[in-house]
Specification:
Length: 223
């Protein structure tokens, strides 16, 4: 099985994958550079996969890499990378969280309930991963695991980066009644229910927050 490791240089992080006659997959555009006898292949999507990708706004293709050598995925970020070891597990990821994985992981599309997807912060479509192998996901800050046992988790915003497929997601008013919801300042929230695990990123790391603050302060030209 391929080896994935997080490489950090001057505060920036990227992923180094080492393969020995193995096959790995990544999100489109994640390749930073590679060395050794490594071949990148891009297969044309099936008709069904093409329609799903267009509807979801996801990548039409996800490149695969095979051979012997090292593949670096990025571009380098100020956020965080987290590795998941799946043993025939099913996870649903926030859009943009998937980076790369072993070839034994199937990457697809998950459709949320219409009202939840249209009005919620998670969107109508999300990425789904399933199978056995290692997956690398990215987030603005460190992830915190919350295990639910026939329980309910309320999340304000899109802090929930990943959840197991056994959980349900709905978009609900924070309190009963529109006036109460408006007065509370919370409005609508994401509600995750059932038994399973949720990975949330409640606090961006320092570098990520600093970069966001700098970008927000840059004046936008009116021309």
């Amino acid at each position: 099985m391929a080896t994935f490791e997080i490489v950090e240089k001057q505060g920036l992080k990227m992923i180094k994958a080492t393969i020995q006659n193995e096959l790995i997959r990544s999100e489109a555009g994640e390749l930073h550079y590679m060395r050794g006898q490594v071949q990148m292949d891009v297969a044309a999507p099936t008709a069904g996969g093409l329609l799903k990708a267009l509807a979801a706004g996801e990548s039409l293709v996800r490149p695969t890499y095979h051979g012997t050598g090292e593949v670096f995925f990025g571009p380098p970020i100020f956020g965080e990378y987290t590795m998941l070891d799946l043993q025939n597990h099913h996870w649903i990821l926030d859009r943009g969280a998937y980076c790369c994985s072993d070839a034994g992981i199937e990457v697809g599309v998950w459709r949320n309930k219409s009202l939840t997807g249209i009005f919620g912060t998670e969107g109508l479509w999300q990425t789904t991963i399933q199978g056995t192998g290692r997956v690398v996901i990215k987030s603005a800050g460190p992830l915190e695991a919350i295990d639910l046992a026939n329980d309910r988790l309320v999340v304000d915003g899109n802090f929930a980066v990943a959840r197991t497929g056994s959980l349900t997601l709905t978009y609900q008013k924070a309190t009963k009644g529109f006036m109460a919801a408006a007065a509370s300042g919370e409005g609508f929230v994401n509600v995750i229910e059932g038994s399973g695990r949720v990975l949330i990123s409640p606090v961006p790391n320092l570098w990520h927050s600093l970069v966001e603050s700098i970008v927000a302060a840059i004046p936008v030209s009116s021309s």
